[in-house]
Amino acid sequence: MLKIKSYNNTKISTFFPIVLGLISGISVFYFLYFFEAYGIQKGTSYSGHSHLFRSSCFGLLTFVYLAFFEFYLKKKFTINTVKQQVFWYVFLVFFASQLIFLLFNYFWNWQEWNLEAYLLIIKEFPLMMIIPIGFYLILSELANHKKNENTELIFQSENNKDRLKIKAEDFLYALSSGNYITVSYASENSIKEHLIRKTLKLLEKELEEDSNIKRCHRSYLVNTSNIQAIKQEKGKVFIEIKEHKLPVSKQYQEEFLF
User: Fold this and answer.
1) For the chain, which domains are there?
2) Each residue's pLDDT expressed in tens, for the chain with a length of 258 residues
3) DSSP string covering 139-163
């Protein structure tokens, strides 16, 4: 199996979490310094810090926090569906607002440790994050689409006599049966299958660099970017891909349940 990637798109997408942190941090600084969000005062705070310094610290905190969570912690979770994406960014914004509230009180010697000040930040911080996070998600979607367009997967049998080349975005899942694998993929608004002689274990090893392709069952390898739904029924977990219902073994459920 040969995987061909567009180097530039992959490199750019690697730094996207930094982009999220930067545009969010700059936005927070801009709103605080120029529009006096949170009702921030321009004078010196009780801690002896200027308006410029405090605005910069709030922006820096936002940058470091969001970049770290998006770049490092997000990799530890499986976030594929729209619902999971929404939950993730709501969590990021909510937790960040707690840190902002703590820093705010530090500058004012904890004189603003009250419900009114807390609710003000809980209300205004998410409003400030709508534009930067929305902009970031649009950029990410465009970059992922471009990367998928330039990425091809070549499935080749062990004896090199059989070969299937498809776009990465068209790969749905692979089903193992003994020493053979059935590759299911999208083609011209339909689902097609191709049988090759290869073990699923070997295929999984060949595809391990692609974070979108994961094992969900001893017999299934799936492209998580094509998952339409993840459901639990009577204690069992299933994945839906193009109207196909695939089982998720207990040992892999943590990878698919957020």
Assistant:
1) 2-148 (no CATH), 152-256 (2.40.50.1020)
2) 444 443 344 444 567 788 889 999 999 999 999 988 877 888 899 999 999 999 999 999 999 999 999 888 887 776 766 788 889 999 999 999 999 999 999 999 999 999 999 999 999 899 999 999 999 888 877 776 666 555 788 888 888 888 898 988 899 999 999 899 999 999 888 999 999 999 999 999 888 877 788 999 999 999 988 998 888 888 889 999 988 999 999 888 887 875
3) HHHHHHHHHHHT-EEEEE-TTS--E
- State pTM to two decimals: 0.60
Q: Are 172 and 242 in contact (CB under 8 A)?
A: yes
Two tokens at 67?
């970049």
> In whole angstroms, how far apart are CA 71 and each of 16, 20, 65, 211?
8, 10, 10, 14
